[in-house]
Structure formats: structure tokens, C-alpha cells
Amino acid sequence: MKLSLFIAFILAALSGPGHAAEADDIREASRAEAETFNARMYAGPPGDKAYACFVRRYDAEHLARHPKQKVASMKLLVSAEYDKEDKQLHNSFRLGFRYRHRSGDFDSSGSCSHVVFTKDGNDARLGCGVDCEGGGIGVALSKENESAIVRLARVRVWQNNKPDDDAEESLVAGADDKIFRLDRTDNSECASLVTDRKELAALRHK
Q1: I want to staple 119 with a disulfide (CB 3.0 to 4.6 A). Which of 25, 85, 135, 204 is the partner?
Q2: Which of 186, 123, 177, 187 is nearest to 150 (CA)?
Q3: What pTM, to 2 d.p., does this model score?
Q4: How many CA atoms lie within 13 A of 188 on its CB side?
């Protein structure tokens, strides 16, 4: 993904509206920074293929403290795959969640690239976007690498894993739906986000 397009939705996802001037504080990660971040994300060098799964199910006490939060649970699967043709490691994401007051499973997916937020101490993160101006998410890691910090302004989603133009909608950040802290867990917890049988088998063996 081109960095100029990438910066546009990352600013929206992580900074919120009205912060376009902060583009100068974002730069493309160096190879060393990207490799360091990948090792943190995948709990070691990713090799040819790797996965990282993060999950959060909000309990009644948390939801009572955040009455405006729309999301009741969320899963994030971050994937890495080495492309032998361009000799690059490509990251992607799958996001699944359930609303607090609506039934059904909702999901989104797209590709990711590395950027560095210089104002935050040269910290490399993943910026992930959905095709055709579908918004995106930013993914950082906690200091101990045991949690993913997901930030969003808007991301296109579909119900029941059916990317149909007529069925699409967006998860839009609200007062209590801008930042989600998800806990690292076994990759099998994110199996419901994978539909390809070969990839599902690879996920279960990682």
C-alpha cells in the first residue's frame, strides 16, 4: 500500500478528525523497525507464515462503566506471510466483533503496513485498511507485548462473513468505542475468523 494513502486512513484511525496536519509526524518504518515490531507481534521471528490472536469479551461491570460502548466482544487476528516473488513479508488483519444490543457476528479484513509515530517516541505500529475507502484500524502493542491496542475512527464491516455491497455497514468510533485493548491468546480462539480450509489448518498448527 502506498504510504500517502496509508497515512490518510491511519490519521483517521488513530488521531481522529481534524488532525491532518499531523501527517508530518508519521513516517514509514525502516526495515529494522519493522522486523523488531514483527518479532514482538508474533512472539518471535515470523518466518514464512505467522499468526497472532487477541481477544476481549467485556463483562457486565466494564459495560456498566461504559454505557455508550457499542461493542460487547472483539477478536483480532493479525497474519504475516512471506512473498517469495517480491521477497517481502506482508501483514494482514481480520477483525470480528459482536454488538452490545444487536444479534449476529460482524467482521472486517484488509492489508497492513508499518508506520512510525515520531511524536510517540519512534514507536512502530501496524496500520491496516479495508479496500475501496473502507476505513481502517491502527494496531499497537502494550509494553509487555501481551495486548493489542486497536484504534479506529471508522471501519467497513459485514455481517456473518459475507462481503456483500448490499450488506455492508461501518463500525464508527463513539465516546466509548475508539480504543480497544485486546489480550493475546491461543490462535485457536481466532479460528472463527478464517474461512479458507488450508489457512485454518495452518493457523491451528502455529
Answers
A1: 25
A2: 177
A3: 0.85
A4: 2
